[in-house]
Write a structure and sequence with these properties.
single chain, alpha+beta, 7-stranded antiparallel β-sheet, 17% helix
Length: 500
């Protein structure tokens, strides 16, 4: 059972592209200068690995309480009117309530199939979380025809992985993980699984791309492969040509529900730390930095004086998080974390999550043109501690000044404006009351009701502060003004606007 990708395609606007190669007739029929030969056969490798891949069969009892197909408001068939004492009265009472309405639907069982693989001969098996999600019973079917009931040790929705335990009468044949960070685009890859319930199916292809983000979760960095993956392959292994697991087959993009050569596997480097935690604790213990980040775009990079866009821009710092006592601030660009380069924003959440809780790490940041190193003690991620609030009490002038700049009409804060734009008493900054139609600010989704907190990484509290800071930036030859904005909920983000 693979993730339903039809909605994914609609959401991401996936478009089928056709390419026409323009070349001379001679070029079209000339043999290539180099043609890499594929493996002559993977028969020996398949035979070696196939006993380690299993079929996961699950069942779930659907009742009236969790059956979405049954509408409580739907009209129910009434009980036929019968004479009192009729011999058929007891018979019909078996199917209808005493009030004459139809009886509630009986519980029913649903079944699903997926794939998995053995990582420890003692009976530890890995699959996708969505394969076993909601299951009452989990049964593992082996290639030799044997079957064993499985117990769920732990699961993680964010990377879609689950760890199962069976008690085998003899040691199982296990496989090991490879270093998926060393996998290259163009390397051969082999999938083994149970598509559409057809057990022990082997398909071969290549790694088509790395680090794919398909908007399925916060830690997306899928390996993409053209090895055929279909429904039922979920949770199965993607092998390299050494017979080691480089990924867990998890999703496909397909308009038909079948393979069109766009399969996605969670890399071994992503799932291994999660699997280790699930085995040890039965839950994940991810690292937490306590910052809210956004992408460093080309215009933001220019406004910060960077040669090129890189890193993760801190838009907010949680008061309870480890980043604040370490001295990290909004406007800092994180360039390195614990020795890992942060090439783009989405690298940081994965690296922080994989970091051991309470480990002290060095964080290299760019702040106002200077490269600094801070030491942070990584905390444990708590899903509840995600809200970033402004706490300083603003000074509210009785008669606010107004100004216009960068396609924005701005004003100081008053009680009336706070009420109009539903701003809390702790909101601070310079209020944007209007955004010009067709302006760059409108294109970047700046909205009336947003508050300007900083201009060019300096705090502002009045329209005069904003205009003065913009004039200073122009005098230095700066082409982009970096604005730190806050919405009514206190969520911060940066926007770069051209000064010309």
């Amino acid at each position: 059972m693979l993730i339903d990708s039809k909605s994914l395609m609609r959401r991401s606007g996936a478009v089928a592209l056709a390419a026409l190669l323009a070349a001379s007739p001679a070029a079209l029929f000339a043999p290539p200068a180099f043609a890499a030969a594929g493996p002559p056969s993977v028969a020996d490798l398949s035979e070696q690995l196939i006993d380690s891949v299993v079929n996961i069969s699950t069942s779930q009892t659907i009742t009236a309480d969790n059956n979405n197909d049954d509408d409580e408001d739907a009209p129910q068939q009434p009980m036929p009117k019968l004479p009192p004492g009729s011999p058929f009265e007891d018979f019909f009472n078996q199917f209808f309530n005493k009030d004459g309405k139809g009886a509630p639907p009986r519980p029913r069982k649903t079944e699903a199939l997926g794939s998995g693989f053995v990582i420890d001969s003692s009976g530890i098996i890995v699959t996708n979380n969505h394969v076993i999600d909601g299951a009452d019973d989990i049964e593992v079917n082996f290639n030799d025809g044997s079957k064993l009931k499985a117990k769920l040790l732990g699961r993680d929705k964010k990377v879609d992985v689950a760890v199962l335990k069976v008690d085998p009468p003899k040691p199982l044949k296990a496989v090991k993980f490879a270093d998926s960070d060393k996998v290259r685009v163009g390397d051969w890859a082999m999938a083994i699984g149970n598509p559409f319930g057809l057990s022990s199916t082997v398909t071969l292809g290549i790694i088509s791309a790395r680090n794919r983000d398909i908007n399925s979760g916060p830690y997306d960095n899928y390996l993409q492969t053209d090895a055929a993956i279909n429904k039922g392959n979920s949770g199965g292994p993607l092998f390299d040509m050494n017979g080691d697991v480089i990924g867990i087959n998890t999703a496909i993009i397909s308009p038909t529900g079948g393979s069109i050569g766009l399969g996605f596997s969670v890399p071994a480097a992503t799932v291994q730390p999660v699997i280790d935690q699930l085995e040890k604790y039965g839950e994940t213990r991810r690292g937490w930095l306590g910052v809210r980040i956004q992408a460093v775009t080309d215009d933001i990079a220019e406004s910060l004086g960077m040669d090129h866009a890189q890193g993760a821009l801190i838009a907010g710092v949680d008061d309870k998080g480890p980043a604040k006592p370490a001295g990290l601030e909004p406007g800092d660009v994180i360039l390195k974390f614990d020795g890992h380069d942060i090439k783009e924003m989405r690298d940081l959440p994965r690296i922080v999550a994989d970091t051991t809780v309470e480990k002290q790490v060095e964080v290299v940041i760019l702040r106002k043109g200077q490269t600094l190193t801070k030491t942070v003690t990584v905390a444990r991620l708590d899903e509840g501690d995600t809200v970033i609030k402004a706490s300083a009490e603003p000074v509210v002038p009785a008669k606010p000044k107004t100004a216009k700049a960068l396609g924005l009409e701005i004003s100081g804060l008053t009680k009336e404006l706070r009420d109009q734009f539903k701003l809390g008493s702790d909101a601070k900054g310079v209020l944007i009351t209007k955004v010009d139609d067709g302006s760059a600010a409108q294109d970047k989704q700046v909205k009336p009701g947003d508050l300007i907190i900083e201009v060019g990484q300096q705090s502002v509290s009045s329209p005069d502060d904003v205009t003065k800071r913009l004039d200073d930036l122009k005098k230095t030859g700066t082409k982009q003004a970096l604005l730190l904005l806050s919405n009514a909920q206190g969520e911060l983000h940066f926007v770069a606007l051209a000064l010309n």
